Amino acid sequence: MDTTDRLASQASTVRLPHPLTGLLLSCHPGPVAAVTVLAAALGVSSGLTTGCVALVASAVLAGQLSVGWCNDAFDARRDADAARPGKPVARGTVGAGTVWGAAFTALAVCAVLSLACGAAAGSAHLAGVLAAWAYNLRLKETVLSWLPYAAGFGSLPCLVALSLPGRPWPAWWAVAAGALLGVAAHLGDVLPDIEADLRAGIRGLPQRWGEARTRRLLPLPLVAATAVLVLGPPAGGGPGPVPVLCAAALCTVVLATAFAAPRPVRTWRKAALAGTVAVAAADVALLLARGTSIA
After folding, report:
1. Where does the sequence pass through the membrane (predicted)?
2. pLDDT of residue 179
3. Would 263 be classed as within a structural domain?
4. CATH code assigned at 55
């Protein structure tokens, strides 16, 4: 049975949601919301006016919608072949053409809103969004699969800083921390699907490493981001010692759980995952706490 027949069979045997619901679900709403909230929070913490925060958040929202729709439309056939759940285009809930149209429309809206923040801010953000499109269309299958995530997350502090009065350049440590968080996001996003990706012929960097090695290396960019956020800003420009000590303790725990291998393995893996999530949360909190000095 080919892909078309499989989609038709699924549509005839499973009650599919409304196409509009499918369109909304195919944008990857979780990551879209998370990145948009992060950009808005960074704008607030850096001192942007309410109007500028709304503009930045809207530009990021449009960009993330375009990336999510591009991903699902481009991967529809591959997702159908792998029978992946939660993929509305692959299930036939909404047509690939509709999703492609939404992706390009969102990209155009993103361009307008981003450039409304200023030429430099808009260009930096659009570079990150276009890198994400490049990931969807080609780079996810190469050893450079991590690069679009680094560029995309690194562009967020650039967008916020260059939207401030005077259009100041973003601090190097803010861009570096964002890029490192992006690399960690890439590893964490790909980790559950490595085996399926390999069967589909996708050989990005995590797929080449394999599940076990990727799981062990995932904490490293998070720990590096913590170090950059603690040591990078000028003295007196950051949070007090308590959050710094907490972040250092979390880094120690997650490194210990990731690289040691006692039994039972399942319990240890859950501990490593929990520690990784905790370090990621601490890094985001540190980044937001440093917001007033990102430029």
Report:
1. 20-41, 48-69, 101-134, 146-165, 171-191, 242-259, 271-289
2. 95
3. no
4. 1.10.357.140
